[in-house]
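Priority: medium. Attachment 1 of 2:
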């Protein structure tokens, strides 16, 4: 009987050892999967950081391009003014006033040509919602971006106005009744 007990005990120990080895192997596989996921997360984080860096660089480049364009427009306007002053009426005839410079603004993804200068809240609403007069109690939310250097983005309040620049964007939503 002693031999049978020893044999049974040996079999149980052998099964337990196999179970422990299998559990260790499964644990090692789980650790490898976890390590792989950690590497994937790190790669994704690096890709996100790179995309954010590119976005910031693009935004900075766009702003620099707008600034350069505005500077060039101002230089041209100054040159034209200097030329007009140099003529000083020597042509014998009067010179017509130059037409006001138009800029392109985008309202809810639609391009509009507007005279350079300030634009009123009501004008933006009328462009975004031509039927706005039919809803006299409606209120509107106006958010803008890509504005002039000193006021690149913001919220335009009722009865407000904002200086517009070429490429300036507006989002207008009918928000309810006042």
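Attachment 2 of 2:
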């Amino acid at each position: 009987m002693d031999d049978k007990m020893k044999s049974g005990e040996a079999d149980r120990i052998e099964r337990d050892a196999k179970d422990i080895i299998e559990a260790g192997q499964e644990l090692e596989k789980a650790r490898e999967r976890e390590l792989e996921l950690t590497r994937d997360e790190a790669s994704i984080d690096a890709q996100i950081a790179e995309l954010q860096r590119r976005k910031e660089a693009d935004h900075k480049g766009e702003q620099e391009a707008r600034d350069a364009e505005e500077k060039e427009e101002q230089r041209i306007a100054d040159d034209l003014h200097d030329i007009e002053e140099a003529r000083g009426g020597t042509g014998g005839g009067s010179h017509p006033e130059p037409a006001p410079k138009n800029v392109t603004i985008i309202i809810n993804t639609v391009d509009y040509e507007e005279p350079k200068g300030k634009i009123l809240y009501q004008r933006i609403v009328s462009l975004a919602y031509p039927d706005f007069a039919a809803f006299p109690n409606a209120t509107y939310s106006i958010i803008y971006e890509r504005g002039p250097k000193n006021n690149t983005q913001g919220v335009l309040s009722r009865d407000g106005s904002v200086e517009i620049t070429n490429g300036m964007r507006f989002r207008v939503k009918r928000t309810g009744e006042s």
